[in-house]
Amino acid sequence: MTIAVAEGITESLATDHRGGFRRRWYRTPSFVLGILIVGTVIGLSLAAPLLTSHSPTDQDLNHVLQGPTSKHLLGTDQLGRDEFARLLYGGRVDLRVAFLAVLFPFCLGTILGCIAGYYGRFFDTIIMRLVDMVVAIPFYVLIIALVFVLGAGARSIYIAITLVGWVSYARIIRGEILVAKRQEYILAAQAAGFRDLRIIARHLLPNVITQAIVFAMSDIVLDILAIVTLGYLGLGIQPPTPDWGGMISDGQAFLTTKWELSTIPGVAVIITALGLSLIGDGLADLLRPE
Amino acid sequence: MDRFAYILRRLLQAIPVVIGVTVIVFFMIHLVPGDPARTMLGLHATPKKVALLHHPWGLDRSLPAQYELFMKRLLHGNLGTSLIYGVSAWSLIWGRLPVTLWLIGYGTVLAILIAIPLAVLAASRKDAVRDQAVRAVPLIGLGFPPFWLGIMMLLAFGLHLGRLFPVGGYGTGPVGHLHSMFLPALTVALGISPILIRSLRASLLQVLESDYITTARSKGISERRVLLRHALRNAVVSTVSVLGVNIGFLVGGTVVIEQVFAIPGIGQLMISSVFQRDFPVVQGVTLIFGIMVVLVYLATDVLHSLLDPRVRFD
Amino acid sequence: MTDAILDVRDLRVEIPLSRGTVHAVDGASFTVRPGEALGLVGESGSGKSMTLRAILGLLPSPGRVVSGEVEFEGQDLASASQRRLRDVRGARIGMIFQEPMTALNPVMRVIDQIAEAPMAHLGQSRSQARSTALDLMRKVGIPDPHRRAQAYPHELSGGMRQRVMIAIALSCEPKLILCDEPTTALDVTIQDQILKLLGALRRDFGVSVVFVTHDLAVVAQTCERVAVMYAGQVIETGTVDEVFHAPRHPYTLGLLRSVPRFDLKRQTLDSIPGQPPDLVMPPAGCRFHPRCRFAQDDCVSGDFPLRPLGAGGGRATACIHDDACVTDVRANPVIADA
């Protein structure tokens, strides 16, 4: 069979789920709500300079631990810094790191998962053994240990999360490929003599990637939590850069006087996470084959 | 007899994983290019201190030889010596291990006590108000940073509500532990219940569609018995593995919780060692955590085989 | 029908689905007399299983009974509360299901599953109920009951499991047993054993049976009376003799003719043309008319409830042109008399 005919067959067989998504996305309430929430959060943090004239790092030791006033919408913290500004700018940092941090494990895990699933046997065994080993060490323990070795800060966070987080993606993609590679359109492509890379990239991947994308949504939540937790422990984003985790940690000493210091950043995390989970749920519903 | 052989076989299968864990733990220090001793000492590195570390660490030898040395020491129970306290890392860990084990166990029990009734409540009336309410729990709950939840607990119970529970510490004696560790254990439990609830509810819903549930109802037994003795009993079989994976996550979460509540467990030891750049202790704790998780997975498998008579032991 | 133990009158069951409401049972009426076995026959989708489930209120959700009465021991089960139904289930009416592998709880020992109903209804203690169960296992022909009692369902063969199901249904000595295709999932040889067992138990326990099946031969072998269902409606009732020798509904006739006869040498397989109707939008008038070779203009609209034939009751048909069947059978007998 000619290449063109083979391509035609494989393309038509493979595009079964994609049309449904475009038609239905705005009618799925969870998806829409999620986008709204996340959109608002991202919008607020991007618009930080417009929403407040304060800098998140300026200290004012004459006005510490104040309540909300017209000058400081959410009051000040123990060093007189404006809480509202810290919240917005902290969101910027945390969200940026979280969204970036999910990309690397996604890519690494997808590649390794493809190799394991498509080639099977030797590669599969090695990669899966590696998965078992990484999974054996608790997520946070491994991250903390890696950050210890690599030093604190955003760069280490990216590396640590990548080294630990690829596992879930690899498992998902491998599972999907193991099933998908038995489909007829793949056999057709193989029979037509297409190279492996082409088959994987153009024919298998578009169909199996949806599960990984859905997972990525909950993974961003996980990453936000990890970043914020590391911030709390003092191992994450380093001061003076504002970070929600660091804010919660700073606030713990002042629970009796100004409990909002610790509470509000946490609520921000929860709301962001809720939005992302809703998007994830919505996506899962939408991308499910009819 | 079959079951013993099965457990033995699983134990043997776990060994390569544990070895893999040691490889990871060993390799961590070599992740950064350059002299590992310098990485370890971080800001306090001086050429003198670095040189001092070289020999005991075998850093003057090749990588495989270093690993060999590492493993040899390990098999003798030697996890290295604390750079700060000068005593064996193992003795530091050993003293604090029971505390962490208490926290994990207590937290798991509480999580189960929370998840089961909620999941049963939800699944028994699918899509009703109570089901929607319970489904909201994982949706919102998964976004709660566990340490923040812990702080909120402190705020609510420790400081305001009549100081019901101590704000930290381990307490003495079993009752003391139960009391002091209630808030942290509850925090841990609330951390993993959302996933448990979601998973158990899904299992229950699936089980409730089964034919044997209709048979059970056709006997005219009470709906409560149908739910508990037939549906739940079957649903837990598939949830056990989810619980196992989540305990793995839970174990890691205790590190942070111990910080929040100032609990003297190995998690807190790890954090303080990280700040003090006490690498042998960090390494040792990581290894112990890894072994703990492998054992938890093993226990989960065994539990699963106990709960499901269809599991074959060959 | 004053001595009927079960009297089902115009039962209707609906299942609301997203594509429309399925009228699974749309007018089923029949009676069961004490000690007798009634066969409820029809193709898949005819509503026979749903009818059975509706009697005990065990419809799969979202199905529900929308009208009709199910009179048993002086009360109407169709409108009874869950509590009342639970008192009846197991204790007064037992049920046997089609797939013994999935119909038994996989993580519960067989003996405990049999003992459950006696503990709930007869107030027996666990040890009493267990010995009752052992006794029952012996009665249903399970060899070496002591050893088998501790087994889990997956450790037993299909025939054994079905015997366990029968033991469960009989455990409180009910007055009526509902059987939902109990032998369909079994090997032919085992089928025969189970049917003979059911016959023997029926005599020993004096229990009435409603036997749902699509297999006419099974009905002929085990039942005294039969009710034929099509598209959710009971369209003919009578004794097995009456209905099989002289069917009075074209559908019944078609069914009987489509059974292969091994005694005739040259024969094309007679089947009923067309497909069973969609139960969301069934045909107007007589449900069978699109496939009926005797159909006439007046079959196309209107309602056709069961019409009693002759005196004595029990013999009825829904067809208004049943004389056509009589003529057809006279010309071409369905069953050669032995």
Output the keywords.
heterotrimer; B: 314 residues; mainly alpha; 76% helix; C: 338 residues; alpha/beta; Rossmann fold; 2 domains; eight-stranded mixed beta sheet; four-stranded antiparallel beta sheet; 12 helices; 12 strands; 33% helix; 22% strand
Descriptive notes:
The complex is a heterotrimer of chains A (290), B (314) and C (338). Mean pLDDT of chain A is 82; it is low at 10-19. Chain A has a single domain, classed as Orthogonal Bundle (MetI-like fold), CATH 1.10.3720.10. Chain A has helices at 3-14, 18-24, 29-46, 48-51, 83-119, 121-136, 139-150, 154-180, 184-191, 196-233, 244-252, 260-287. Chain A is built from twelve helices and no strands. In chain A, helix 1 (3-14) packs antiparallel against helix 9 (184-191), helix 5 (83-119) packs antiparallel against helix 10 and helix 9 packs across helix 10. The radius of gyration of chain A is 23 Å and the shape is elongated. The two termini of chain A are 31 Å apart. Chain B is built from 13 helices and no strands. Chain B has helices at residues 2-28, 36-41, 47-54, 63-75, 89-124, 129-141, 146-160, 173-180, 182-208, 211-218, 223-261, 266-275, 279-307. The model of chain B has no long low-confidence stretch (mean pLDDT 83). Chain C is an alpha/beta fold. Chain C contains twelve helices and twelve strands. Chain C has helices spanning 48-56, 82-88, 100-103, 110-121, 126-139, 145-149, 158-170, 188-205, 216-222, 240-245, 250-257, 322-331; strands spanning 6-17, 20-32, 37-41, 64-72, 75-76, 93-96, 176-180, 208-213, 225-230, 233-239, 307-308, 316-317. In chain C, helix 4 (110-121) packs across helix 5 (126-139). Chain C starts with 5 loop residues before the first strand and ends in a 7-residue tail after the last helix. At the A-B interface, helix 6, helix 7, helix 10, helix 11 and helix 12 of A face helix 1, helix 7, helix 11, helix 12 and helix 13 of B.
